[in-house]
Amino acid sequence: SEVATMMDVPVTKVISACMSLGMMVTMNQRLDAETLTIVAEEFGYDVEFVTADLEETVEEVEENPDDLEERAPIVTVMGHVDHGKTSLLDHIRQENVIAGESGGITQHIGAYAVKLKNGQKISFLDTPGHEAFTAMRARGAQVTDIAIIVIAADDDVMPQTKEAISHAQAAGVPIVFAINKSDLPTANPEKIKEKLAAMNLLVEDWGGKVQSHDISAKTGAGVDELLEKVLLESEILELKANPDKLASGTIVEAYLDKGRGYVATILVQAGTLKVGDYVLAGRHSGKIKAMHDERGQEIKEAGPSTPVSILGLDGAPQAGDKFKVMTDEREAKEIAAKRTQLQREQTVRTQRHITLDEIGRRIALGDFKELNIILKGDVDGSVEALTDSFLKLSTEEIQVNIIHKGVGAITESDVLLASASDAVIIGFNVRPAGNARQLADKEEIDIRTYSIIYDAINDLKDAMEGMLSPEL
Ligand code: GDP
Fold this sequence. Notes:
It is found in: Cytoplasm. Belongs to the TRAFAC class translation factor GTPase superfamily. Classic translation factor GTPase family. IF-2 subfamily. This protein is 32% helix and 24% strand. It has 14 helices and 21 strands. The strands form 5 sheets. A 6-stranded mixed beta sheet has the order 3-4-2-5-6-7. Strands 9-10-16-13-12-17 form a 6-stranded antiparallel beta barrel.
């Protein structure tokens, strides 16, 4: 009804336009962005979304290069379970106390900053693992600058190591490998490097470009050198931010504390956050009453790449929500309220993920250049065979990328990666495990499973030619 009024056509016509698209709708129903576009086109209108994407309402202004200053890198530690992620984070946390400051890091606030002996700083996200990393990314937040991927030298490049690598690569985040547990007599770092080389990741000692260092998270051997390499990588990235403006950044975690109210750990990514600032964060807002660092010390302001825990929000935003300091308190509250409303009307989707059925149409529209695929199979042989065949389907108009492949069931982590990278998931003789199917439905991720290689290739080929008959 709303859209009919805007276009000045009878609502019945809009309803029948929807019906011709196979959608039975009522007058009060909200249409998703895509349907709206198609329906409006029928009546000769172009749709421009302004309020639906509320990020737009807090738009970024172009930065003057003179205002930019160097900032510390933000690092996430990933890797296979038990390879030593937590041990490494703990070691770094304990060893790198800023000189002259009392005590080590006592609070777990989800992120911490350390100052190395040479005075340089690094900020770590304290929730190890690629799931947390990609969950944030699926929410549109790219916080990590560099990924440390920990591999135990007495073990192997494991499935989750491969996942971590794919997740970092899909995000375009450079990797520094920490070959861990080198104190163990059974450690064989060269074997790990060889395995990495076989995956096209040639580390420096092997003449490649990928940084890696042998460490022991237990004894601390090599950790300083590892961090040096992180800083080298960071120099190449030329990480910069303008500290002299209203702060913006990302929520790392948030919870309700019985005594203090809502506590949120945030990572300032640009500008400087000050006590007293009015903050809009996801669907919540509030005036900052107090800020603390990871040592539990009260601080008055926090610049770029600094993690801080803040008090004063009127609710707990989700990890990955962006925050922004607003000058107009009323406007901040309005946007927060609007977001809450949109959240309730879950039918409103501004961005849907790609499905095989849609590919042909999207290619025809000319706005689709790369098809991202996550491929899971029961055995290595079929995964490799399918990879080769899929890659060969690339045409001049559209490039096929396998952003992650592996042996095993389709997991929630695969679905998150698909959501963050707008990919379709193809399973060969494997099915979604655990809650992966549920999550895929929620995130609207297309999962296709096959048991005949030929069918999988043909479906993809047909999809790319816009000829795929809808899945029944
Ligand atoms: P995570 O699952 O990746 O976080 O791994 P943890 O940090 O929990 O480590 C798993 C196990 O490996 C623990 O028992 C650690 O004590 C042990 N560990 C971690 N790093 C090292 C290391 O450098 N040397 C040795 N010998 N053991 C380690």
